[in-house]
Structure formats: structure tokens, C-alpha cells
Amino acid sequence: MESKPRERIQFGEGKISGYFSIFLALMGIFGVLCAYFPSYLTTPDFRKAYDPQLVKWVLLGCLVLSFLFALWSFLVSNRRKYGFIAVILIAIAIFMGTHLPEARNITDKSFTVGLDWLVIDLLISAAIFVPIELFLPKRTKQTKFHPEWRTDLIYFIVSHLLIQITGVLVQLPAIHLFKNIGLEGLQTMVQSIPFVLQLFFALFIADLFQYSGHYLFHKVPYLWRFHAVHHSTKHMDWLAGSRTHFFDLVVVRAVTFLPIYVCGFSTAVFSTYIVIVALQAVLAHANTRINFGWLKYVFVTPQYHHWHHADDPAAYNKNFAIHLPLIDMIFGTYYDRGDEWPEKTGLDDAHFPKGFARQLIYPFQKDPLAKDDELTDISER
Ligand SMILES: [Zn+2]
Ligand SMILES: [Zn+2]
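^ thats the input. predicted complex w/ zinc ion below
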């Protein structure tokens, strides 16, 4: 059952600062937990990049900020529970942090949970996108705590915790297919291209492959059942992009990774590409009116991708690209209505399952080729 729409939170109620303080304190606790069980809760690839001093300062910064927000919430709010909860959480984090076990050898486990990646990405994404959505929202009445936010948060958490297994699965086809066919010559040539051109080429070729995978997930009815999960959100915001069925996520990313692997871009280009992917995928779903002027014809913007999610038959099967609108222009799927934004997003299907678990099993539940009303309805895209 749909819960009734909630009011957008207002400044000055003490709620925003209360939520910030609880969020930051939780990040502090999770950070300390990573230090307790590094072999199990941190990702080998990230672990190499940590500067322990920096991590310490960041966690301490989180707790100090959390305390300041709690104090502010306390001063301006009638309901002081947020401040109380935050202070208790801060105390737990400090207690845990000051009782850390002696440094032990970290062993590489075959399976680790990416709690470190969750904390890092959640902190960075929240720092960038929460202020953008607070101060420059597109849908001004949409609150962050809309009826679907918990579902989207679960997607965000699960996809980050499973980063290690996702990474292995995504790289598997590329490594399996191309490992031993002698790509050194091609890769040396690609790496000799100047940085900016090489980066553009990386974005272009990755988006071209992403386009093909994404297109098939729209056009093949059985695949659409998986991708429909991503399109089911009616409240577009920075968390909404995380709502992707695990199968959809792995397959499209694996397809996108093929040309990246084959071309063997330089480390600088590959790292920049990863940062752009992470930021643009989140920004594209964000509830913000920032539209980047003429750059909207060059890079995928929120308005561009919101049209991809539009619950409007005129916009079905348009704007598949995630980096460069050029790709949609080439294939005739570019859609632009000037300054207009879609009236609504999501599926025109009141029966589409809600919640992470139901959406996870949904694609497997019925004969995907059965021409029932529900399927006809969603496979029109
Ligand atoms: Zn799509
Ligand atoms: Zn999307």
C-alpha cells in the first residue's frame, strides 16, 4: 500500500541537522567497524590506497560534525530525539574507536564485504548531492523521505557491500574472452593518445557498449522484466539510480567493461573514467534543476536521463546514453523538449512489486513470454 505523500522537510525545524548528525555518527561507527574487522569488512583494492592517518582524521571529522549538527538540532528543535540518538551513537563510536584491538595482520579473504566502500561512497555522494537537492531541487515538493527512499537505500547498501563479487563477475567475460589474444600492441597505441582524447574515446566506446546492453534490456521482453526494476521509481533522486536488479547491473556493466579491457586505457584515463561513471550515474538521477547550459548537448544531465525514466509514451525508448548524448543522436533515439521536464517518471503499472526482495524475485516469477496484461503493459517500452 502506498503511504501518503509527506511534506518536504523545511529548514529551521532541526530535522535536517538531526538527520545529518545521526548519519555522520553512523558513518563513524561503520568506519570503526572496518578497523575492527579489516579482513572481512574492507575491500582489498581500496585497502591498498588508504592512508591510516587520513582515515582517522576523516572519521574524527565525521564525529565532530555529527556533534555540531546534533547541538544545532537540539537548539532549534522541539523534538530533541534526533540530537539524543546522535549523541548516543557518537559515544558508541568513540568507545569503539578508543578500544581498538592491536594492529593485526590483514589477510586476503576470498569474500569480503565492502563496508569501507559503502562508507566512502555514501559520505562523498551525500556531501555532493544532498546540498544540491536541498538548495537546487527540480521537484520542490518532493521530500528526501518519499515512500520509496528506503527501498533505494537498500539497493545502494547491498550493491556497495557486494562490490567485490560484482567486480569479479563484471570482469569475468572480458578476461575470459580476451586474456590470451595479444592486445599489447593495441593497448600501447591507445595509451599513446593524449589524455583528453583518450578519455573521450573511453567514454564514447564504453557508452556505445552500455547503449547496446541497455537497448536490449528495453527491447527483449524477458530482459525488460529485470530492467523494469530500475524504471519503477516514481521519485527520481540521487539514490534512485541505485535501484537496479543485480542481474541487470552485472550484465550491462560486464558488456561496458569489454571495450575498456580490450583497449587497456592508461591508468590516469581509467581512474578518471571510473570517477566520471560514479558521479554521472548518480547525478543523472538527482532531483536537481541544474542543467549545465549548452553542455547538456555534450554530457548526459539529470534532465536528459529523467526523460529516459519518463512515464510518457513519447519518451519511451529514448536517451539510452549515460555519458554522451551523441550516441543517442547517432542512433536516432535522442529526445529533447527544450526546457521541459517529464510530468512523471516510473512505470504505468500499479501492480509492480515494491521493495527490494520482491523486486529481486519478480523477473523469475512468471513465464516471461506470457502475454498477460501486465507484461504487455510493461514490454511496450
Ligand atoms: Zn532504461
Ligand atoms: Zn536511470
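DSSP finds 17 helices and no strands in the chain.
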